């Protein structure tokens, strides 16, 4: 494998960082690498809030579920799906803009995710570790208030960046045959492949915790599907102008 593929397959979430700061030049290089990601119709429907204010970082860490690495990392970013800039540009160019379409929400969210992953790969290529923070959506209204996000902009997730102070193992992924399907969605093998993966994850968790964690992938999924996960998101998005028409 070439170094790029090796780097991609060695990704780990880093939750403990050294005190070393990322040089500003390197930081901006990572962001420019993010801008080079694919974007639907060149809309570039994203904005990044680089949270520098320590008090705001502390508040965001608390809102995200008490994740201390939001405060401890060298840099913390909040990635926002942004349809404000592009729709206003089209209006200034003379368009009668239609806002609130579901496709606009999808485009902005996908553009944001693609851009963030480019930043992640660029950062890891320079020895920087990272952790995505989906907990930003625990209370997106308060996050929006702290970051002064206008209508048609919503916070999708955060990202901690910094130099790793830990060396976790790479977490296994599902067998390729479970997610790569030829021509049609065929799931006749899925049950056996998931059972195989459950065994893999049980071994992984036991090794990582010295035998104190005995669980599987399927067991870990249960809390996600036995309660209504972040039911506030629909009303929040509607309130932000993403009407999903």
UniProtKB/TrEMBL annotation:
Give a yes or no for keyword rRNA-binding in this entry: no
Keywords, A to Z, come to: Flavoprotein, FMN, NADP, Oxidoreductase
* CDD domains per the UniProt record, alphabetical: NfsA-like
Protein origin, superkingdom? Bacteria
Which is one Pfam family of this protein?
Answer: Nitroreductase
Q: Name one GO molecular function term.
A: oxidoreductase activity
Q: Which InterPro entries match?
A: Flavin_OxRdtase_Frp (IPR016446), Nitroreductase (IPR029479), Nitroreductase-like (IPR000415)
Q: Which residues form the Nitroreductase domain?
A: 9-163
Q: Where is the signal peptide?
A: none
Family that this chain belongs to: Belongs to the flavin oxidoreductase frp family.
Put simply, this protein is called Oxygen-insensitive NADPH nitroreductase
| Originating organism | Marinobacter nanhaiticus D15-8W
């Amino acid at each position: 494998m070439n170094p790029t593929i090796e780097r991609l397959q060695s990704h780990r979430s880093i939750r403990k960082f050294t005190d070393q700061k990322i040089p500003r030049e390197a930081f901006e290089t990572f962001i420019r690498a993010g801008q080079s990601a694919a974007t639907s119709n060149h809309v570039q429907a994203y904005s990044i809030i680089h949270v520098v204010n320590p008090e705001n970082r502390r508040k965001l860490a608390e809102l995200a579920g008490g994740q201390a690495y939001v405060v401890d990392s060298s840099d913390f970013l909040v990635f926002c799906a942004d349809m404000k800039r592009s729709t206003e540009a089209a209006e200034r160019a003379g368009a009668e803009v239609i806002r609130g379409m579901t496709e606009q929400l999808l485009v902005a969210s996908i553009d944001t995710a693609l851009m963030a992953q480019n930043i992640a790969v660029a950062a890891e290529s320079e020895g920087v570790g990272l952790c995505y923070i989906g907990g930003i959506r625990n209370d997106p209204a308060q996050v929006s208030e702290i970051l002064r996000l206008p209508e048609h902009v919503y916070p999708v997730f955060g990202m901690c960046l910094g130099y790793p102070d830990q060396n976790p193992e790479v977490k296994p992924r599902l067998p390729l045959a479970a997610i790569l399907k030829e021509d049609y969605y065929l799931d006749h093998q899925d049950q056996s492949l998931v059972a195989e993966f459950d065994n893999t994850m049980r071994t992984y968790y036991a090794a990582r915790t010295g035998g104190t964690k005995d669980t599987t992938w399927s067991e870990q999924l249960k809390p996600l599907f036995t309660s209504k996960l972040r039911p506030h998101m629909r009303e929040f998005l509607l309130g932000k102008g993403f009407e999903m028409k």
